[in-house]
Specification:
Layout (H helix, E strand, L loop, with lengths): L8 E5 L4 H12 L3 E6 L2 H12 L5 E5 L5 H15 L4 E4 L10 H26 L6 E5 L12 H21 L5 E7 L8 H8 L2 H9 L8 H12 L10 E4 L3 H4 L1
Parallel strand pairs: 1-2, 1-4, 2-3, 4-5, 5-6, 6-7
Helix pairs in contact: 1-2, 1-8, 3-4, 4-5
């Protein structure tokens, strides 16, 4: 079943690589006008050109998602370029892995507060939209303890919790809020590809924990995000859908 987002206006925060890029491209392929942001201007422009190749409006803005004012400026620019916002995707991560001040600061600034700031900045536009939706990207790390990346696991758990609160607060305005919790996703230039090339035992251990014998692909998460943002999920809100090929079951 194909999803049609013709005429819809989609903002993907953290949309130049990995899951964000695949999500933005999937929306564009389904007919949506799409805006993306990230810190790296070069990759951002490459992805914007890929989006524009689908023949729909495509906008990109350099934005540090750890900076509240930069987020507000980007959301306003994206709304102006697209003519509004119907769907907001919160995808960025600060990848705070170390259990120290720096690791916690990175996680809270991007994984948690960027969701808050982008959602609040997009709210006036979502209120004017038809069938508005927000989807945030958490992680299966939210559901288990982590000795390697305690801050990352904790902030992703916060995203899961905040998703339920947002959904409750915004339900009467007709805005649906959901999240996805991906497992280990491998893509070019990503963390798991690097670990594979390095021969990391962590990669091998994760691979063995997935019953299908491979890591996930960003397109598989993107498809789930599109479902949650679509009319097919019109009676779904406040939920986090795990997308991990069974990894969490066997970890």
């Amino acid at each position: 079943m194909s999803l049609d987002f013709t005429g819809r206006k989609v903002v993907v925060c953290g949309g130049s690589r990995g899951i964000g890029r695949s999500t933005a491209l999937a929306f564009a392929a389904a007919g949506a006008a799409v805006s993306i942001c990230a810190r790296g201007a070069e990759q951002l422009e490459i992805t914007r050109q890929e989006l524009a190749a689908h023949g729909n409006p495509a906008h990109a803005g350099v934005c540090d998602l750890g900076d509240a004012e930069a987020i507000r400026s980007y959301i306003a620019a994206a709304a102006a370029a697209l003519g509004g916002i119907d769907i907001l995707i919160n995808n960025a991560s600060g990848f705070g892995m170390t259990d120290d001040a720096a690791g916690w600061a990175a996680g809270f600034a991007v994984d948690v507060m960027a969701v808050v700031h982008a959602s609040q900045a997009a709210l006036p536009y979502l209120l004017k939209a038809t069938a508005p939706a927000v989807v945030s990207v958490a992680s299966i790390s939210a559901y288990r303890p982590s000795g390697r990346s305690a801050p990352y696991a904790a902030v992703k758990a916060a995203v899961v919790q905040y998703t339920t609160s947002q959904a409750m607060m915004w339900a009467k305005q007709g805005i649906r809020v959901n999240a996805v919790a991906p497992g280990s996703i491998e893509f070019a230039g990503g963390t798991w590809e690097k670990r594979k090339e390095e021969g990391s035992p962590v990669y091998d251990a994760v691979l063995k924990s997935i019953p299908f014998g491979r890591l996930g692909e960003p397109e598989e998460v993107a498809d789930t995000i599109l479902f949650l943002a679509s009319p097919l999920a019109r009676w779904v809100t406040g939920q986090t859908l795990v997308v991990d090929g069974g990894q969490l079951l066997f970890s």
